[in-house]
């Protein structure tokens, strides 16, 4: 108990601002709670509306919900680990305090893992709403979601731990996490494929049991239910992996000694846009989050191709909306690569407006590259090109605008793991609501949907320019004030 209370206090201060007053932290905590409740309410309302609008989709809801929850559970754990403090600053401070090695590791990891577990818990209510709306028993719905979340989180944790133990030497620091992401992508794709393979039998082979997802999907697809005892055992196993195995395997591994740049630029003098694009590709956190989002997008593509042909058209809009929100979470972090105040571009006397335009263009390039596989999959399986392209553009424009706007308004540091996770959840929910509304409008009034999409893009660009000019002007005013004081002296 003496260790738990300081740890929870540390997590609270880190999430809601350790350098602010207690009143400010309480206000931020209350505001965050209100936003989370609002997001949950919107997610529940949208889940009910989507399920009620397509009655034929009800039979496919349980296995599809299990797959989405499985992917969400694994991605949350991966993003939590990628956003932890890998510089060693927190560990250095803890080393000076009277804590044992085990206590120091717990104090370093519990704030991040606690936030991850909270986000895993937030996924239960919307998913349960979808299942109950599809006439799935409430107790069975909770058991199914818990089992799928535990399978996803546990699988991601085992992959992270296995790669970390196999590549413990410091020379592997720069490639350890990307290898974990690639392994997770392969395992997730295999699990989804095996979930639909040999679907005439509800029994799973030992290999499918090891993957975790196929038995859950098949049990739900054949109308069966997950026993509460089995769900509890799965949850306990996932907690042991995430809470103990992952911190143990990654304890002591720092990335501060690795080379930040592996290959020097040899293409002559590049333009500012090309140079800033290369700079974004060398940000480990941004690239890791992009890989995580692309894993989920590829999983959605496999899902769209695996379902029966009559269900592909109704599933197109929800899948495109979800994919756009996932990719938008990467765009939200574009501004977070730079300090909130005094970015390097300002210190070398560049203009703020062209810089914002270049960053928005780079973000749009990231978004288009990560979002392209979904429309490619829709065209490949034979869906109408007009519908596929129109839905893709409507959902993508709204999600990009909302995500970029969130990133420029609230540029949280990339090493603030709890803040990044909470901001990602809030941004995904807001982008999903905007995208779903735009897609629904496009089915009845394409020109109105086009106007809404262009309006959100213009609003995003104008707000980003205005906010950044205000930040840069604040520094110019402070410089002018210091110059006047020096002149008077």
Task: Write structural notes for this entry.
There is one protein chain. The chain has 489 residues and is mainly α. It is 78% helix and 0% strand. It has helices at residues 4-16, 22-53, 61-82, 89-95, 101-122, 124-133, 138-166, 173-196, 206-211, 213-221, 228-250, 272-281, 284-306, 312-331, 344-347, 352-380, 385-409, 417-444, 446-488. Mean pLDDT is 74; it is low at 254-261.
Write a concise keyword list for the protein shown above.
78% helix, 489 residues, mainly alpha, globular, 0% strand
Structural class: mainly alpha
The percent range for strand residues is under 5%
User: Count the strands?
Assistant: 0
Roughly how many Å is the radius of gyration? Answer: 23 Å
Instruction: Detail the poorly predicted runs.
Output: 254-261
In DSSP terms (H or I, runs of 4 or more residues), the helix count works out at 19
Q: What's the pLDDT, averaged over the residues?
A: 74
How would you spell out the order of helices and strands?
A: HHHHHHHHHHHHHHHHHHH
Estimate percent helicity.
Answer: over 70%
| N-to-C span | 57 Å
Apparent shape: globular
Largest sheet: none
